[in-house]
Design goal:
Largest interface: A-B, 57 and 67 residues
Oligomer: heterodimer
Structural class of chain A: alpha/beta
CATH architecture of the largest domain in chain A: 3-Layer(aba) Sandwich
Structural class of chain B: alpha/beta
Strand content of chain B: 5-15%
Strand order of the largest sheet of chain B: 2-3-1-4-5-9-8
Number of strands of chain A: 14
Number of domains of chain B: 2
Helix content of chain A: 40-55%
Order of helices and strands of chain A: EHEHHEHEHHEHEHEHHEEEHEEHEHEHH
Shape of chain A: globular
Number of helices of chain A: 15
Shape of chain B: globular
Strand order of the largest sheet of chain A: 3-2-4-5-7-6-12
CATH architecture of the largest domain in chain B: 3-Layer(aba) Sandwich
Helix content of chain B: 40-55%
CATH topology of the largest domain in chain B: Rossmann fold
Distance between the termini of chain B: 57 Å
Largest sheet of chain A: 7 strands, mixed
CATH topology of the largest domain in chain A: Rossmann fold
CATH class of the largest domain in chain A: Alpha Beta
Number of domains of chain A: 2
Chain lengths: 336, 346
């Protein structure tokens, strides 16, 4: 074992893939500087700086993947994927189906996501519910360095399109690049998320396997990304109130590990979903529906982002799920 | 052509510069969050074009909207409060510096590169229906011309004969990518291929910018369709405050120490590109740093300094303007900081 930051873990897993498979390439804006270590090791033929043309280079990534490469296409912030959505919505996700399962698209779309550093509603969204809504796409959201590297390796090795979302509070260079800009500023960075123990050599984690971060019997807190760490903190505070909370880290939104969710809720009878993505028509409602479909009687609540994220740092804090809201909602659900 | 009022242009450029220098200071103090992009270095373009706008004209801005907003007459106090995320800000602290909106000025901005193209086209379409003779100005950087939506907007504006002034501020850098390395052909000719009259100008030459844009705006008002103006400029604070390349230029020892160990590991590690390619990558990064160093603040690049020199004969008036503006901005900043501190004292 060794200790790596979240960002270094991703980069290390990509480097391992690139050294093992010459068909793995990276393409995106500013990658010569943002991925300077990969650029200086693998050269400009495989680490390709693009113009600001997301719809073209994401769309090109789809067919490059169909024709034999394994591209990692970087969309700097997931918010910018709106510009390139057609490549994902109507092409990457549908080629395998349309070709009668004959033709696969081994493409990774990597983007930063999430808020907590005062960048406003056009740069801090998570959007994984929106992306996971599309059949044919895998959507991955790691919460710590070990998962970040293993899931990146799995994404590169997978024979279909994978959207890989890295939260900016976890990845230090994003925090520095978009947030502090060299200033000495404090963000609410999850200690266990931004740095941690990782394997010496990366091996893939299968998609759709959630992990129990903390076992409990009274309430199931189902979550992902940075919210996993908020939920863990909340579970600690709930323990002091005599509540035994289970925390389930989904790791992938699509496929969703329904059996892990169902088995946890069958045990506790209470489901609390913490989702940094928008509340409406999203992951939290989907999770409630799939538990209902399994004919389980349970109580349900959710803590999500309910509005457009305000620019104001103090208002932003109220909009994005935090530990306090999780504890309060859990206690309400438990009638405490 | 209308005569240019150089003293007024100087006043507006100076207001923009002083306001944004205060913004830099407040950002440094940690009171402004997010990606703060200043227009310091491009004020001549903003002042010359924006001072020609009248009520009913629209302004579609990108992420670098502070300077045009100040010059358009938005309240600097409200803007600054907005940048600090205060409820008394221009947009109640909801939008921030990348999302400046003023309905009364028909001024809208966005942090999505290229989006000021369609935005200006739509404003111009509304002008054709509702406000004949009024125009829309689109500000964007040279990075944005590689977005499909910008090219689609050129086409739309051309075939619909929309009254749009497309203004591309070209500093040859799209964040940390050298634009000329990822942009094919010549941008002026690219616009001309859409049947849009195009001009290429030096962003420090106020009089040339005036002549060209005054004529283009008159034509747009007269219903003769869009125009494309490519104007070279520098951004002295880089892409945004805290620009990683500029940090390396300013504090090479401190910043290079952070990236060097990773680089050495990468170029010596087994597996990867041939050594010549690896050396090529390092050379590329070094040349990027050198280029950034060259683009820095200097008198030959500074439109404000150059205009001041040109107005040497009117130094008394200039000094009055500078004192006025300094007093205005200092009192605004003091008032804003007071409001801010009172709100957050607990």
């Amino acid at each position: 074992m060794r200790t790596l930051s979240f960002a270094d873990a991703i980069e290390d897993a990509i480097a391992q893939s690139m050294s093992e498979d010459p068909n793995v390439i990276i393409m995106g804006e500013d990658v010569h500087l943002l991925r300077v270590n990969l650029f200086s090791r693998f050269g400009e033929k495989r680490v390709i700086n693009t113009p600001v043309s997301e719809s073209a280079f994401l769309g090109a990534g789809v067919t490059a993947a169909m024709a034999g490469l394994r591209p990692i296409v970087e969309i700097m912030l997931v918010d910018f994927i709106g510009v390139a959505m057609d490549g994902l919505l109507n092409h990457a996700s549908k080629v395998e189906f349309f070709s009668g399962s004959d033709w696969k698209v081994p493409l990774v779309i990597r983007a930063s996501c999430g808020g907590g550093y005062g960048d406003g509603g056009q740069h801090e969204q998570t959007l994984w519910g929106w992306l996971a809504h599309i059949p044919g796409l895998i959507t991955v959201v790691p919460s710590d360095p070990a998962d970040a590297g293993c899931l990146m390796l799995a994404a590169i090795q997978y024979d279909g399109p994978v959207v890989y979302l890295e939260h900016k509070l976890l990845a230090d260079y994003w925090r520095d690049y978009l947030g502090s800009g060299g200033r000495d500023l404090d963000y609410d960075v999850p200690k266990n998320g931004h740095k941690g123990e990782v394997p010496d050599k990366w091996s893939p984690i299968p998609f759709g396997k959630a992990i129990v971060r903390r076992s409990g019997t009274d309430i199931s807190i189902v979550t992902l990304g940075v919210s996993v760490h908020r939920a863990m903190e909340a579970a600690g505070l709930l323990k002091a109130r005599g509540v035994s909370a289970e925390v389930l880290d989904l790791r992938t939104v699509s496929p969703l590990d329904s059996s892990a969710i169902v088995s946890s809720v069958s045990k506790t009878g209470r489901l609390l979903v913490i989702d940094e993505d928008y509340k409406q028509f999203g992951l939290s409602g989907e999770i409630a529906a799939l538990v209902l479909e399994n004919s389980i009687r349970f109580k349900f609540s959710r803590v999500c982002t309910e509005t457009i994220i305000p620019y104001s740092h103090s208002l932003e804090k109220q909009a994005i799920p935090d530990t306090k809201r999780i504890v309060e909602t859990a206690l309400e659900l438990l009638n405490k | 052509m209308n005569p240019v009022d150089l003293l007024n242009i100087y006043r507006q450029m100076y207001r923009s510069r002083v306001f944004e220098e205060h913004v830099v200071q407040i950002w440094n103090d940690g009171l402004i969050t997010g990606e703060m992009h200043t227009g310091i270095g491009e004020e001549a373009i903003n002042a010359v074009i924006v001072t020609q706008l009248v009520d009913g004209d629209a302004l579609a801005l990108d992420h670098r909207g502070t300077s045009p907003s100040i010059i358009r007459g938005l309240d600097p106090k409200k803007l600054l409060l907005e940048f600090m995320g205060h409820p008394q800000g221009l947009c109640s602290g909801m939008g921030g510096h990348m999302h400046i909106f003023s309905r009364s000025h028909l001024l809208a901005s966005s942090g999505i590169v290229g989006s000021s193209g369609p935005a200006a086209a739509g404003f111009a379409l509304a002008a054709k229906h509702l406000r004949p003779g009024k125009i829309a100005v689109s500000f964007f950087g040279e990075g944005a011309v590689n977005e499909g939506m910008m090219m689609e907007s050129f086409n739309l504006a051309s075939v619909f004969k929309l009254p749009v002034l497309f203004v591309c501020k070209d500093n040859d850098m799209a964040i940390t990518t050298v634009s000329s390395e990822v942009t094919a052909g010549n941008l002026k000719e690219r616009a001309e291929a859409f049947d849009i009259p195009a001009k290429e100008l030096d962003g420090t030459d106020v009089e040339i910018i005036w002549q060209t844009t005054n004529e283009a705006i008159a034509k747009a008002r007269a219903g003769e369709g869009p125009c494309f103006i490519l104007i070279k400029c520098k951004h002295f604070y880089g892409h945004f405050l805290g620009d990683p390349l500029l940090r390396i230029v300013r504090k090479p020892l401190k910043e290079l120490r952070k990236i060097t160990p990773g680089l050495i590991k990468s170029i010596t590690r087994f597996g990867g590109a041939p050594i010549s390619d690896r050396v090529g990558s390092i050379k590329d990064v070094l040349s990027l740093i050198t280029k950034t160093g060259k683009d820095r603040d200097s008198e030959v690049n500074d439109p404000l300094f150059l205009l001041r020199k040109k107005l040497d004969g009117e130094i008394k008036e200039i000094e009055v303007i500078e004192k006025d503006v300094n007093d205005e901005m200092v009192s605004i900043v003091e008032e804003v900081l007071k409001i801010y501190m009172e709100s957050y004292q607990e």
